[in-house]
Design brief:
Dna Ligase, domain 1; 6-stranded antiparallel β-sheet; Rossmann fold; 3 domains; D-amino Acid Aminotransferase, Chain A, domain 1
Length: 340
């Protein structure tokens, strides 16, 4: 593989205060840091001169490390600040203000996608199908709009990775609706998005690019042991609890038996969504395919988990990339992105 001469600073987030040259070898050996370890291994394969930095609550560490290391580009894997994932766009904003090239999505796309209500409003305006929904702020009276029909999924407005989504999130009565909204308000200290449940297949579409986009083969979460009449959606346990996944036959793989015309329609729709939400770099779009063939937008995930075994990288490898080649492509996109 051809050598890559870009100097790269890999930027991570940490769950406690860090120092400029902190030893992260313990963290990098854990499952929680699989993405970071995979990235550093790929940079080594590419023969990139690379260093890494983890931040918790001090962006000045970034400025100091950049002055010291003088990287060509930052590989941005920092998706939280002070343990708050709502601040990922602020990290991107800081890098933009510093004029430092970085990988992944810029602050505008992160902001639009993080607020699940705003992203749905934008897409609905452009006639892209989304579930009917409402936003329920904290410190407001909890009431279901009459137009919103059961069953309803009640979720944190700005969380990722299905955090806050459980079987109890799907409610069918007003009492349960109020109880779950109250739980989210108190447990996560967040506003709530409540949206009508869409029956159908759970599809994940990886997209790569800034202006010219590449859509990767479609992935799907399947629920082999869940009874046909039971609702099927991606709870936190369904994504991350391996014992739970084995018990219910929950598997992530490539979507089977999609008609080629439907596949092309999903690819075209995914590119449109990506541009409308001002995403650049790379993203995973979560869609539902209803039994009558309607494609429904659920949410967009800029800078999705990039570990080699996760959906985005698996889709890229099915499209012909090796994992190091994918990392090199993301680096090039970061170097050429227009941030203004």
């Amino acid at each position: 593989m051809a050598k890559t001469n870009w100097k790269v600073l890999a930027l991570f987030d940490a769950i406690r205060p860090t120092t400029l040259d902190q030893d992260l070898s313990h963290e990098l050996a854990t499952e929680d840091w699989k993405t970071e370890a995979d990235l550093l291994a790929a940079l080594k394969t590419l023969e990139c001169p690379a260093e890494h930095l983890a931040i918790f609550d001090d962006t000045d560490l970034i400025r100091k490390k950049v002055d010291q290391w003088q990287p060509h580009v930052i590989f941005n894997l920092a998706d939280q600040f002070k343990n708050n994932r709502a601040f990922d766009q602020n990290i991107a904003s800081f890098l933009e203000l510093q004029g430092i090239p970085f990988t992944g999505c810029g602050s505008t796309g992160l902001t639009l996608c993080k607020h699940k209500g705003i992203s749905k409003k934008i897409l609905s305006y452009h006639r892209i199908r989304v579930p009917d929904f409402t936003i329920i702020p904290r410190a407001r009276r909890i009431a279901r709009p009459k137009r919103l029909k059961f069953p309803i999924l009640v979720k944190p407005l700005k969380e990722e990775a299905s955090l806050g989504i459980a079987q109890a999130s799907l409610v069918e009565h007003d009492d349960d609706f109020r109880e779950r909204v109250t739980f989210i308000h108190e447990k996560f200290d967040q506003d709530v998005i409540a949206e009508e449940y869409v029956e159908g297949r759970e599809l994940y579409v990886g997209v790569l690019g800034n202006h010219r986009l590449e859509v990767f083969p479609i992935r799907e979460m399947v629920f082999r042991e869940v009874p046909p009449e039971e609702p099927k959606f991606a709870t936190y346990k369904a994504k991350w609890d391996e014992a739970y996944r084995r018990r219910w036959g929950i598997e992530s793989g490539f979507a089977a038996d999609l008609d080629p015309l439907l596949t092309r329609r999903i690819q075209t729709l995914s590119k449109k969504i990506y541009h409308l939400l001002a995403i650049d770099g790379y993203a995973r779009l979560d869609l539902r395919l209803s039994p009558d063939g309607q494609v429904v937008f659920i949410e967009a995930n800029p800078n999705p988990i990039l570990a080699e075994g996760e959906d985005f990288a698996q889709s890229a490898m099915r499209a012909g990339y090796t994992y190091p080649e994918l990392i090199r492509r993301i680096l090039r996109l970061g170097l050429t992105a227009v941030r203004d």
